[in-house]
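Two folds, back to back.
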Amino acid sequence: MNEIAIDTLTIAHRLRDAGFDDKQAEAVTFAIRDGITGSLASKEDIARLEGMIESQGARFNGKFILLYWMLGVLVAGVASLVIKTFLG
């Protein structure tokens, strides 16, 4: 289970000060806590993702280099058109 420090007592007190009764404040506080801790990635999740990225990285590296060159040529072409149009 993922561990994270959440001050549930302060949250519950603030909710009570805002007009929630004890049961409502407790329910909202635990819902917040469960929502935050349930969405955290574990070390295993991160390791699995790193493995996926490494296996896919080599395959996509060449495509990204080509994309950068294409974007560079596009920017240079647009810049030359702008310069020619506005500066003569």
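---
second:
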Amino acid sequence: MLPHAGQPILTAGPPPEASRAAMIMLHGRNAGPRNILELAGPLHHPDFCYLAPAAASNTWYPYSFLAEIQENEPGISSGLYVVDQLVQRLMQAGIAKHRVWLLGFSQGACLASTYAVRHADRFGGVIVLSGGLIGPPSTSWDYPGDFAETPVFLGCSETDPHIPKARVEESAAVFTRMGASVTQRLYPRMGHLVNDDEVESVRGLMAGT
């Protein structure tokens, strides 16, 4: 059962065949692809193709990302399947994996980061905005693969009501251990949102692709 398969995929920018690079953008809970695609403008890289899949009923999985993984199935597996299909589609269109970016906010950030560690390779970049790796406390995320200096950005509030600071730090440590070039930013007194510093930082990383 793959509830997210076959859902709409919205795009912005040129088609993959005419793009320098591509970014898969994953929205948060109770949002949709139009919401996350709003970041494409401020990121200001018009030679990127942006693809934003929709989650069924606007939610990738029903419970907290800290719950037992089985409780959030089949949502997690279905979301990971959708991301993998988009990665394969982009590569078939001629965009090498080292030019494929993954970006997510909130639930989407948790899904994007989890996909990345399960498929570690040289991506264009992995952007984790107010999120972290999926799994209950004591999860180890022991997966094979090497990010080969893939830039990874993790940004979150120090007091996010949904994302514990410790999980952001754990996630950064996993990416570092797996060979990524990690930037972690924890912002004081920030809400569950994307701030200007994060946008500027991501825009700078994208310029290096």
